[in-house]
Amino acid sequence: MPRPARHVFVCTQQRPPGHPRGSCAAQGSTAVLQAFWGELQKRQAYEAVAITYSGCLGPCDGGPNVVVYPEGTLYQRVTPADVNEIFDTHLIGGQEVERLKASGATW
Ligand code: FES
């Protein structure tokens, strides 16, 4: 397997209802993960991009959270509608999606 140029981690952490930290899953991250996998399949970009679900990345209240390596870019409040732009602009184009980036105080 060739090493992908970029690796996307989508937080799919779940917590019980009423938990004080909430969770990305409760904020819709499963649909975001499915959108990333769907876009990966549509583009057949398996040698360029890897998509992996993860546990908690830390800043739960800004979820759904997505981090992209090697840059270590954290995107917050990602929705399925954002996934195509992240692919085009960052995963393929190499430029971060500024409007979705976490603030400097967060990450
Ligand atoms: S639950 Fe997703 S960052 Fe904590």
Blueprint of the fold:
Blueprint: E1 6-11, H1 29-43, E2 49-54, E3 66-69, E4 73-75, H2 83-92
Parallel strand pairs: 1-2
Antiparallel strand pairs: 1-3, 3-4
The chain binds FE2/S2 (inorganic) cluster (FES).
FE2/S2 (inorganic) cluster (FES) binds near residues 56 and 59.
Question: Would you mind describing this structure in some detail?
Answer:
The protein is α+β, with helices and mostly antiparallel strands. The protein contains two helices and four strands. The protein has helices spanning 29-43, 83-92, and strands at residues 6-11, 49-54, 66-69, 73-75. The chain has a four-stranded mixed beta sheet with strand order 2-1-3-4, with helices on one face. Helix 1 (29-43) links the parallel strand 1 (6-11) and strand 2. It is globular. The relative contact order is 0.22. The mean pLDDT is 97. Residues 11, 13, 23-24, 56-60, 63, 65 line the site of FE2/S2 (inorganic) cluster.
Produce a short descriptive summary.
By secondary structure, the protein is α+β, with helices and mostly antiparallel strands. The chain is built from 2 helices and 4 strands.
